[in-house]
Each structure stands twice: as C-alpha cells, then as structure tokens.
Design brief:
The chain is α+β, with helices and mostly antiparallel strands. It is 34% helix and 23% strand. Helix 2 crosses helix 3, helix 5 crosses helix 6 and helix 6 crosses helix 7.
Length: 274
C-alpha cells in the first residue's frame, strides 16, 4: 500500500519494462535470490538432469536425489519444472536457490506475456534465464552456483531445442542431447551410445532413464530408481501440443523394465559398432 492511501504505488501503474525481474529489482530487491556468507556445506545440491530431442519434440528428465556433502538430504526432490506451456527447466546445483530461480523465471515469462500480449520466442526465454543466472553470480562465487538445463519446443521451426548454461550466465545451444550435474559425464557417455536420430517419444524417454541409471551407477550424488520406495525420475515431454509431465506409473513401468534388464546385463545395453 502507498502512503497516500492509493491501492498501489505509482511505480506499479507506469508503463515500463516487460521484465518482471528488473521491476522486482527496482521495487523490492530483497525478494531476489541473494545472500551473504559461505553456506556451501549447509545447502542441499541437486543432480542430475538429462534432455534429448526426438521426432516431434524434446524430453527432459531428472533424478530425485539431493545431497548435502556426503549426506542424502532428500530422496524425492523435484528437479524438472514447467517454465511455461512449451518449455521446461531442470535444476542442478544449490537446490534452494535453484527452485527460487525457477519460480522467478516462471513469473518472468508469465509477466512478459501479460505485458506484451504475446509469449517470448524460445531464444528469448533462453536469454531471460541467462540473465537470471548472471544475477546470481555473486552467490556462485561463494560456491552456491545454479546451473540449469533449459528445453522447449520451437513453434516457428517445429522441433525441440536444448540450451545449457555456465555459472556466469553463458548460454549455449546443444544438439540432440545434453546433461548437467555431477553425474552428467556418465549420463552423456551413456547417451552417446544410446541416442540416434529418429527416436520415438517412448524410445527417447527410455534412453534418458538408462542414462540416469548409468549416472547413478558411477556418481554417488545421483539417485537411481528407488524400487523399495517407488521413487522414479521426473520426466517432462514437450511437443507441438504443449508440455506434459509423464505419470509416475508410466515412468515406473519404464524404470522397472530398465532395472530388470540390468539384472542380466549390469552395464546396460550394448551399442552397435556401425
């Protein structure tokens, strides 16, 4: 409330930037993701996120484990979120800051659409996320980095696209597949063997679940399918029809098939030599 009795201050009524983050910085900067001190050992970290394109869209999946040093801080954390109808973002790094950044990013895209009357292009969305990461640079220098993975369906070009970032906000477009997080090296190595052009949606989802299994096999910070607790990866699929999170039962069925096959071949399916 303003001091003159009006419902809103004049700043809320003046035409201005379509960026919600910039407006928030000018009116209530204390609400932006900020902090002081070194809390690296106290902050849960989330890994691993994988994404791949298929014939008709893009899939993103994330494991469910968050760690705090050598402790498992949470077994069922969500790391993949819808950012709008045709895009999603997966978080790796400091979990608390990452979730806060995702919420700000969601609001940023919604605010832009309300102010401008149209949604951002996928390149515009990727750039806005880069700006938010850059705003967290001071925290990243203290060890509290947020390194997301962004994916969406490009309505103009009619195919799925993937973007990765570094801690300074550098934006890089990836092709076919990519992974971020502590298990990314192993997940990417797995996808190099499993990925091929022309995958169906089901095959793409299975390849990502296989990649997360391989990451968990070699990286203690990545959680594999938890058969006892029935905790499985979060999987989002984005096509020209929009975005949907696959039901847990569907992901569980794929994970159960993968785990059963690993009982016979622990290192996973063999890739063709040709």
């Amino acid at each position: 409330m303003s001091t003159n009795g009006a419902r809103l201050d004049a700043a809320y009524l003046r035409p201005g930037t379509s960026s919600f983050a910039e407006f928030l910085a000018s009116q209530a900067p204390q609400l932006l993701p900020r902090g002081n001190g070194d809390f690296t050992d106290l902050a849960p970290h989330g890994t691993t996120i994988v994404a791949a394109t298929f014939e008709g869209g893009v899939v993103m999946a994330g494991d469910r484990r968050a760690t705090m040093g050598n402790i498992i801080a949470q077994r069922d954390i969500q790391k993949v979120y819808a950012s709008d109808e045709f895009s999603c973002v997966g978080i790796a790094g400091t979990a608390g800051l990452a979730v806060e950044m995702v919420r700000l990013f969601q609001t940023e895209l919604e605010h832009y659409e309300k102010i401008e009357g149209s949604s951002l292009s996928i390149d515009g969305k990727a750039n806005r996320l880069a700006a938010l990461i850059r705003g967290n640079l001071s925290m990243a220098m203290q060890g509290l980095a947020v390194v997301p993975l962004f994916a969406g369906y490009d309505l103009d070009r009619a195919y799925g696209r993937i973007f990765s970032y570094d801690a300074t906000g550098g934006r890089y477009e990836e092709h076919s597949f990519h992974s971020v997080g502590s298990g990314s090296m192993f997940a990417r190595g797995s996808l190099k063997k499993l990925y091929r052009e022309g995958l169906t949606q089901s095959e793409c989802v299975t390849a990502l679940v296989q990649a997360l299994y391989d990451a968990a096999d070699d990286d203690s910070a990545t959680g594999g399918p938890d058969l006892a607790r029935r905790i499985f990866p979060v999987v989002n699929v984005i096509t020209a029809d929009g975005q949907v999170r696959l039901p847990d039962d569907e992901v569980a069925q794929i994970a159960d098939t993968v785990v059963a096959a690993r009982m016979q071949r622990p290192d996973g399916p063999a890739a063709s030599l040709t």
